[in-house]
Amino acid sequence: MGRRAFITGVTGQDGSYLAELLLAKGYEVHGLIRRSSTFNTSRIDHLYRDAHDEGTKLFLHYGDLSDGSRLVTLLDRIQPQEVYNLAAQSHVRVSFDEPEYTGDSTGLGAIRLLEAIRMVGLHCKYYQASSSEMFGATPPPQNEQTVFWPRSPYGAAKVYAYWVTRNYREGYGMFAVNGILFNHESPRRGETFVTRKITRAAARIAAGEQDELYMGNLDAVRDWGYAPEYVEAMWRMLQHDEPTDYVVATGTRFTVRDFLATSFERVGLDWEKYVKFDERYLRPTEVDALIGDASKARDVLGWTPKVHAPDLARLMVDADVAALNHVGSPWIDTPVWG
Ligand code: NAP
Ligand code: GDD
Questions:
Q1: CATH code for the part of the protein at 4-324
Q2: Domains in the chain: boundaries
Q3: Mean pLDDT value of segment 122-150
Q4: Catalytic residues
């Protein structure tokens, strides 16, 4: 029998790349999507075929992490061998505006899914999308032993999800793992995360479609990697014999200011002439510096990143320039694994 996977958050950046990866490996992929009044499937439209077509391998199901009984029904019907929980209210700044909803979807959502697996009696492997945001104020470098000190409702919700994942592993013997992923980006990144906000603005300003760019804290340090490489690490975690948790990162230090300079330089502009400050983009508590030590993922899973922040900025700018010119971009249109 072929392998079958269930992905929550399949319409997001990571979900779309993971669906591509698993389909290329011959999996039957089932994705959870939220009903909305407009289509929210643009990142996976190129993968979708009508369910009546022969050979269809991607199936989409309406549902929500707030709806536990729906998760039970779906898991019972689909019987996946691998479950990837990528769904979340994933924006840190927004989590200060919507703390309760973030706790419900990003935190409690994980235990609803774990409990649904347990109730159905599935013997599947479970991946939890944990985050470097859990380290918060603990200084870098951060690895699997680093103490958590979350600085946002989002970070706190992810810490809860992390611990219930470990608890179901230790308490019920479930193959449940946390991938503690540092920031990872791509041309499919949501437009309000800082990297995509910058690369999109650089392309638009160069094309004369935008005059200025309002930003918050430019001093923040992040370890930015390339999303398609990170979903490969997720898959490898579930193929290993032992369930255990891993940090996934590049180990490269880059500031928001560095990302601005590299991106604007790509289109021949000096960023300092266009960027203005707006305090709306500050957070009540900031995470100053995240730089990961992914030695364990390298040694145990054989995973190493190839794309580092400067190349990432350039490929994202190129994709945004191509999109503005309505020409195809190899970074957007071609399934990376296809
Ligand atoms: P994303 O682009 O924001 O995608 C989030 C996905 O979750 C979307 O498919 C969204 O559906 C879905 N979703 C949100 N709330 C839901 C709910 N209540 N029920 C069901 N689905 C819901 O996020 P991403 O960048 O791909 O990240 C994937 C996961 O990894 C997230 O859990 C994120 O917190 C975590 N993570 C991300 C990073 C990173 O740097 N990207 C790093 C560490 C951890 P709609 O399309 O309908 O909104
Ligand atoms: N979004 C945004 N917009 N961030 C800004 C801006 C702005 O205008 N100006 C400065 N920043 C700074 C933020 O204060 C933060 O320090 C940094 O840029 C990165 O912000 P985001 O891109 O929004 O990402 P994040 O690091 O807060 O969270 C992302 O990475 C986490 C992993 O560490 C998200 O993808 C989370 O879901 C993920 O868990």
A1: 3.40.50.720
A2: 4-324
A3: 98
A4: 131, 133, 154
